[in-house]
Design brief:
Helix content: 25-40%
Oligomer: single chain
Low-confidence stretches: none
Radius of gyration: 28 Å
Distance between the termini: 85 Å
Strand content: 5-15%
Order of helices and strands: HEHEHEHEHEHHEHHHE
Largest sheet: 7 strands, parallel
Structural class: alpha/beta
Strand order of the largest sheet: 3-2-1-4-5-6-7
Shape: globular
Length: 340
């Protein structure tokens, strides 16, 4: 009996591009229902108001069209910056510690001093000559149950930096936290408008002052201590009209990372915060009134920050219970997406 062998059937060769055509057809099928929903959906209504993201609503633009004489008194601002942070509850994160805050009389420095006191730290405030502001800050710090001293002088002078540290040690017996925050800022339309005198003043205040204050403080800082520098979004992104200021803030960011590496063997952490626009005396003392009213409007949140919105970050970076594994970072708090 003859065996028969089946002839293999040839499979049809796939048509080139058939898979791509099928995928494109599926994409169109997925798209159609969304197109129908988009046609049926009414246009979204916008309130025109900046979004509020915190528990208590913050002031929005226009800000008061006001110009201050440098260095700028917070007491003279038509809209006083918010620094009280009433919703922030202290929990002893800085209990038994001592902090020295430069530029602590007003703005970010005042807000930081108040929250440090609320967390249990004694506070020394270094300031230029704004006696009225410094005294008000001292009253608020003491109202939190902490001790406070005020130290008047210029951080661009190395002798004053040593004096500020010495007076802090004399008053409180130790130093655990240094916040470098004092700054000089003045806008200019062109690099040709920046004189040698002005460039020297900006560098000596914003860079030399930070370096000199850290140099004076480091011999007295122990393991677990920290230094926090105030940088700026301008140090991350640049600023066409703040050429010298932006230069110093970029230097501060580099200084922060370098000093963090240098002090790591001592167990001392060094970090920086890079704020965006913040409602403090610094800016009304820089810009003309017509620009001040729109200050901060260019951010995604469409308004400037209030100092109380930044100060908790300074607590976080200072507290060993929160940030013992964090050093050498520049933390942007800018009110915008994609600040780095």
């Amino acid at each position: 009996m003859k065996s028969t062998t089946a002839t293999p059937t040839k499979s049809a060769k796939p048509r080139v591009g058939a898979g791509a055509a099928h995928t494109a057809s599926r994409q169109r099928a997925v798209q159609r229902p969304q197109d129908e929903k988009d046609k049926a959906k009414p246009a979204a209504k916008t309130s025109g108001q900046p979004p509020q993201t915190g528990k208590r609503p913050q002031p929005v633009n226009p800000m008061p069209a006001q110009h201050l004489r440098k260095p700028g008194l917070e007491a003279e601002m038509a809209l006083r910056p918010r620094f009280e942070a009433p919703d922030y509850k202290g929990s002893g994160k800085l209990e038994g510690m001592t902090a020295l805050v430069t530029g602590g009389d007003s703005g970010i420095g005042r807000a930081v001093a108040v929250l440090y006191a609320r967390e249990g730290a004694d506070v020394a405030i270094a300031y230029l000559d704004e006696d009225q502001d410094a005294e008000e800050t001292r009253r608020h710090v003491e109202a939190e149950g902490a001790r406070c001293i005020t130290i008047r002088g210029d951080v661009s002078d190395p002798a004053f930096c040593r004096e500020a540290v010495d007076k802090t040690l004399e008053a409180f017996g130790k130093l655990d936290i240094l916040v470098n925050n004092a700054a000089f800022q003045l806008h200019a339309a062109s690099i040709e408008d920046i004189t040698d005198e002005r460039l020297d003043m900006t560098l000596r205040t914003n860079v030399f002052g930070y370096f000199q204050m850290a140099r004076a403080a480091v011999p007295h800082l122990r393991q677990g201590a920290s230094i926090i520098n105030t940088g700026s979004v301008t140090g991350l992104e640049g600023s066409a009209h703040l050429l010298d200021y932006s230069t110093t803030k970029g230097a501060i960011h580099a200084f922060t990372k370098s000093l963090a590496s240098n002090l790591l063997p001592k167990g001392i952490r060094v970090n920086a915060i890079a704020p965006g626009p913040v409602w403090t005396p610094l800016n009304p003392a820089d810009s003309p009134p017509e620009k001040v009213k729109d200050f901060g409007k260019q951010t995604d949140l469409q308004r400037p920050a209030q100092p109380e919105e930044l100060s908790p970050a300074y607590v976080f970076l200072a507290a060993p219970s929160c940030a013992s594994y964090i050093t050498g970072i520049v933390l942007p708090i800018t009110g915008s997406v994609g600040a780095i």
